[in-house]
Amino acid sequence: MAPAAVVRLLFREERRSVRAVEAAADAVAAVAVAAAQALATGGRLVYLGAGTSGRLGALDAAECGPTFGARPGQVVAVVAGGARALRRAVEGAEDDARAAGRALARIRVGPRDLVVGIAASGITPFVVGGLHTARHAAATTALVTCAPGAARAAGVHADLLVGLAVGPEVLAGSTRLKAGTATKLVLNAISTAAMVSIGKCYGPRMIDVVPSSAKLRARARRLIAELTGRPTRAGRLLARAGGRVKTAVVMGRLGVDRAEAERRLRAAGGRLRALIGDP
Prior knowledge:
279 residues, alpha/beta, Rossmann fold, Helicase, Ruva Protein, domain 3, 2 domains, 5-stranded parallel β-sheet, 12 helices, 9% strand
C-alpha cells in the first residue's frame, strides 16, 4: 500500500475508537464518580499500566497538576518498569505481577484510593497483580480494557469495568493505535469529569489552572479579567492571591482580602459557583 492509503486506512479505523468510547460512556462515568469520591475524601486516583497503557496513565496524571491544580501525589501513575519505561520499552516488565503489588505497597494504597488498571489485552500480569493487591488493601478498583471478555475469562476482578470494543488493530497487536486512542479518551474523561465534580472548573473554564508558564499566566489573567469585569486589575489580583485564580476571582467579585477569600472558598468546598453564582 502507498503511504497515503495506509494513512487513510488508519484514520478510517480510528473512527471505531470514538464509537467504542461513546458506547462505554455510562461505565466511564461510573469510574469518574468513584474518582471524584476518592479525591473529595482525601484519597487518590492511581493509574496502573504497562507499555502504552502505562504511559497514557502517566500522561494524564502529569497533566492534572497544571490543568486542575491537583496536589502532588493526588493523581498518580504506576508504570511497569518504573520511570525509565516512560522513555523506552522495558522488556518483560509487564509480566511481573508482583512488581505492581510492591509499587502499590510503597505508595500505601488504601481504602480511600481508586486504582484504575489499564490493560488493552485485559490480562497483563502487571495490571492483574496490581488490582489484586489494591483489592486486598480495600481500595476501589476499575479496569479499562479493549478485551473485557478475555479479562472475565481469566478471572480478573475489579469493582468497575470499562470495556472498549475497538476491534482488531490495522497492524495486528499494535495497541498503540485504536486501543491507545480509546484509552486516552477514557482517561481524559475520567479525570476531567472527576475534577469538574469536585469544583475544579467553573463552567468551561479551568479555574484552578496553575500559572506556571508565560502562556498560563496570561490565561490566568484573562480568566480573572473576564470573571471580575476588572481587566486592569487582573494582574494585581493574581499577585495578591498568590497565583491562585479562584482566590483572585473571589477577591475581585466580593471585595475581600486573600485570607477571607480563602476562608469562604474552604467553607464552599472550593466551589466558585457557591460564592458568585452561575457562569
